[in-house]
Amino acid sequence: MKTRSNRSAQGLAQGLANGLARRIALRGPAFAALLVGFGSICASSVQAGSGDGYYGGQAEWAQRYDADPRLIVKRSTTPVLSPQTMAATEQAIETYREIVSNGGWGTVPSGQSMRLGANGAAVVALRKRLVASGDLDRSAGASSIFDSYVDAGVKHFQARHGLLENGVVGKETLAALNVSADVRLHQLETNLVRLRSYSGNLGDRFVTANIPAMAVETVENGAVATRHAAGVGKIDRQSPVMMTKAIDINFNPFWTVPPSIVRKDLIPRMQKDPNYLSDHKIRIYSKDGQETPSSQINWNTLEATNYTYREDPGDMNSLGVVRININNPYGVYMHDTPEKGIFGDDDRFVSSGCIRVQNVRDYVAWLLKDTPGWDRPHIDEAIRSGQRVDAKLSSPVPVYWVYVTAWASPDGLIQFREDIYQRDGFAPAAANSSPVPQLPSVAVQKAASVRTLDPMSDEPQ
């Protein structure tokens, strides 16, 4: 797992250069490499502004790790859930059927990681692999040297697979390269079924959280308004696929520890460190609401499961400074996090089912845009107060948690993500192995009938 630091103005300039380089990579990778280098030279003179994926002038919020340069790069404004994406994915399937009929592609030998300057037979195999998938132009030749053409091609491939765009063929990139063309074709076919299940009226304003892509996007009038990196459920604590609505927001929330986390995490930690709860400002309450000292509980028995555990609000609260409540029967929600560094990781399967949202204040500002009294200054003021403040959306916003591991955009970019929950299988019928919600015309309206979360208890009722 690789973590990026220094989400500063340099990241913005380098990100912009990388983005332009990727767009012309297949036409002239050498020129693309020069653009990337230019980004490093001019980065020091660029000031980050306020926009999706980065912050400017908000050091007081300690968001240094909130912005991922991959999300600064300008992307298509086409939503993942859209007719345009479905049409582009259908075209991608035809492209991959042709690739498969022509024999697919070979594997790239494993061994030490490859990067700019490497030489050998493995580089020749890498070139052939990148050419086969359209990440490298055939005119780049068959040299055994890892040159700027190959570097640009690898970065283009990494961008399409949600990997760190560093041009280095390491373990994660090699694994993605060696997925066969046949598997990729079936992956596209499987996910087209999923995309078609969302072909109904999703709403003029809605949110999509794509779990395997670890990404959230807000959509308004058919175009993406903001994009956010996300932390999602671990393999053994998966985020659910569902259609729901965002109903209200808690600023500076308490966190009531769910019973499952009490059993799996809290009790074992208290057995190892009796000061764990006090160090993390977690209070214990008996059934009658009385605060109870941890010393009065036998942590080697199930006695601890008879109590309620609540973490005080603050910057280090497990939910961060914002929680977005959504109607659902799973007891999950969307929230901030004190661990901003996760948004620079390639692997963000880190939660117990909830979704952590990068640049969460931009996200809630979009959610509250039509709610009187909740413009950005009021949001910032509520957070600064350190006190629990609740905001009810004047119009609940549809939210879709989806599982889409392959799709294409109208510009021809074909995207793949790891099937982390192993729901794709190897045939189109495998789409039925994961929950694929159907979208009748009244689906959005019916979502509001699912049980709600009590904003004062922070627990499902």
TrEMBL record:
Keyword hit for Transferase: yes
Protein name listed in UniProt: Putative peptidoglycan binding domain-containing protein
Keywords: Cell shape, Cell wall biogenesis/degradation, Peptidoglycan synthesis, Transferase
Pathway connected to this protein: Cell wall biogenesis; peptidoglycan biosynthesis
Domain L,D-TPase catalytic as annotated: residue spans: 205-392
GO molecular function list: carboxypeptidase activity; transferase activity
Entry annotation: catalytic residues: 335 (proton donor/acceptor), 354 (nucleophile)
Organism of provenance: Methylocapsa palsarum
CDD domains to which the protein is assigned, alphabetical: YkuD_like
Domain of life assignment: Bacteria
SUPFAM superfamilies: L,D-transpeptidase catalytic domain-like, PGBD-like
One GO term (biological process): regulation of cell shape
Gene3D superfamilies for this protein: L,D-transpeptidase catalytic domain-like, PGBD-like superfamily/PGBD
Family of this protein: Belongs to the YkuD family.
